[in-house]
Structure formats: structure tokens, C-alpha cells
Write a structure and sequence with these properties.
77% helix, two-stranded antiparallel ribbon
Length: 168
């Protein structure tokens, strides 16, 4: 429950693109903590790795949804939300199938490395896409502020406060 309580203040303070990267980095650290685990690995190491993966995966869906929906025109926000939700559900289904097929064996511990390699690759791709989102967000903020207009930033969207307040 703690990550859910922390999400809103962290997203407000740092923005959705930064929290997307933070989530993927946290998941990557969890996967790295679990590399090399075997039957003699301590419970503490396994707990830290799984906690980091779980905590990171709390931030990713919310940040990704906000970035996708906020980057579309208002009249297409519903469509973007539907597509994003469909992709999220499909991704969950595919990831369960991939991890299940990798780990569904009598050599579960031996196959953990393969599952963690897939997770590491996905986290690295997520970090890369998050860094692109951060760059795009900063470019949008700079473009608006270069025009000499007031800039109001909420979550990951940048809006012109003059336009949103009704002033021209």
C-alpha cells in the first residue's frame, strides 16, 4: 500500500516521465539483486529483489498512462486511454506467458536467469523510452518559456497558463 500512497505526491513533485524512469530503474535494480540466486540464497536478498521489482512496477503503469493520454489531443483522449489500456492488458498477458514458459520446469532456479534477462531487457527499453519522454517534456517547457509566456506544468503536461486562464 505504501507505493500507492506515495505515488501522487511523487508524481506531482517530479513529473510522470521522471517517475516512469524511476520505476524502471527500481525494477532493474531488483532484477540485478536476484541474478545468481540459487537454493542457498538468503531470504533477505530475495525479499529485497522482489520488493524492488514490485515497488518499481507500481510507478510504471500510472506514469505511462499519463504520458500517453496527455500527449494526445483532447478529442482523442478517450481513444488513447482505450488503446493504452488494451496494450497494458496485452502486455500483462504476454509477460505472464513468457515468464511462465521460462519458469515452468523442474529446473526453476536454473531458469531464473533467463526470466531475469527478459525483465532486464524490458526495463532497459523502458528506461530509454522514459528518457525520451523526459527530453520531450523539457523541450516543450523550454519552447513555451522561450515565447515569454507563463508556464504552468502539471504532471507530465505543459500548458500555457494564459490560454488556460482565458487571457490572450
Amino acid at each position: 500500500m505504501a507505493p500507492f500512497v506515495l505515488c501522487r505526491p511523487l508524481f506531482k513533485r517530479f513529473g510522470h516521465p521522471v517517475m516512469l524512469v524511476t520505476g524502471f530503474v527500481t525494477m532493474l535494480l531488483g532484477a540485478l539483486a536476484l541474478y545468481g540466486t540459487d537454493a542457498s540464497t538468503s531470504y533477505a536478498r530475495i525479499a529485497v529483489g522482489t520488493f524492488l521489482i514490485g515497488a518499481g512496477s507500481t510507478f510504471v503503469p500510472s506514469a505511462a498512462a499519463s504520458i500517453v493520454v496527455s500527449s494526445t489531443p483532447g478529442e482523442q483522449a478517450g481513444l488513447a486511454s482505450g488503446v493504452q489500456n488494451t496494450l497494458r492488458q496485452s502486455g500483462g498477458l504476454i509477460s505472464v506467458a513468457i515468464f511462465g514458459s521460462i519458469l515452468n520446469t523442474s529446473d526453476f532456479v536454473g531458469r531464473m536467469g533467463s526470466a531475469l534477462a527478459v525483465m532486464t531487457a524490458a526495463a532497459l527499453l523502458g528506461i530509454g523510452s522514459g528518457l525520451v519522454a523526459i527530453r520531450d517534456d523539457r523541450i516543450a517547457r523550454q519552447s513555451i518559456s522561450d515565447n515569454g509566456e507563463d508556464v504552468m506544468v502539471t504532471a507530465s503536461t505543459t500548458t500555457n497558463s494564459a490560454a488556460s486562464s482565458g487571457r490572450s
